[in-house]
Amino acid sequence: MSKVKSRAWLRVAGAVAVAGLAVSACGTVKMGAAAITGNSSISSASLTAEVANLNAAYKADEAKGVKPQRATGQEAQQVLTWMILFRVYDQVAARNHIYVTSAQTDRQLAELTSEAKSSKATLTEYVTAGGALPPDLIPQLGQYFAILSDLEGRIDGGKTPTTTAGQDKVESAVVHDQCVASKDLGVTVNPQYGVWDYRSYSVVSAPPTLAAAPTPSAAKTPALTKAPC
Would you say residue 229 lies in a domain? Predict the structure, then answer.
């Protein structure tokens, strides 16, 4: 399976927005947690630190004339999406008995670095300005891609799809596996940060419960917070 196809799917599904978890804005969230993933949590303090890391990278990027490609003012949601995503793919790996080596991770990062160079950017600029990923999480991005690549390689006997239909089949299988793994974790997002949307596979703002009903033309598709798998 082409690594380029994997990255194209990632950017469409979630970032460089992205992983699906059963989320309820009404769920119980432990004090100080931004999200609960399985038996562990992502603390609000760690999220705040990662957002600060991203904003520092943005300043460095902008000093070089590189502007963020993602919507600004949504950094907490964007970073939390990544932090949840990485845990989801740890679960994907566990379910499928995928054991990623440091060599596999390094290979994925080397290919990302090559892509960045073709865009005349450093790897850090590529993932921060392009994907709203804090630079200290780059190793986890490499691991994510390694898991995804291994998973894709197990679909349809490991045959590389040569048609659009074949590529869609692989993508659908990956999304389904991701959905099941996410559902297993039963993640809950702190309403302060939003809800997990299964349509966009990202943390999005929860609609105000007392807001007036929008007109049909102005209505937005509500977030899908129940696992569709």
Answer: no
Any alpha helices (H) in 64-101, and if so which ranges? 75-95
Provide the pairing of β-strand 33-37 with 195-197.
unpaired
φ, ψ for residue 34, nearest 5 deg: -85, -30
Q: Residue 35 falls within a domain, yes or no?
A: no
pLDDT of residue 11: 40
Task: Give the mean pLDDT of 166-184.
Answer: 87
Q: Is 140 helix (H, G, I), strand (E, B) or coil?
A: helix
Report d(CA 207, CA 194) in Å as an integer. Answer: 9
What ranges in 14-74 are assigned the alpha helix state H?
Answer: 44-63
Q: Which domain holds residue 119?
A: 3-28+65-204
Inside any domain, residue 60: no
Q: Among residues 109, 142, 137, 113, which one has the least CA distance to residue 51? A: 137
The continuous run of DSSP H or E covering 204 comes out as strand 202-204
Query: Residue 33 falls within a domain, yes or no?
Result: no
- The mean per-residue pLDDT over the stretch 201-217 comes to 63
The mean of the pLDDT values for the chain is 80
**Which has the closest alpha carbon to 85: 13, 155, 149?**
13
Distance in angstroms between the alpha carbons of the first and the last residue of the chain: 24
Q: How many domains does the chain have?
A: 1
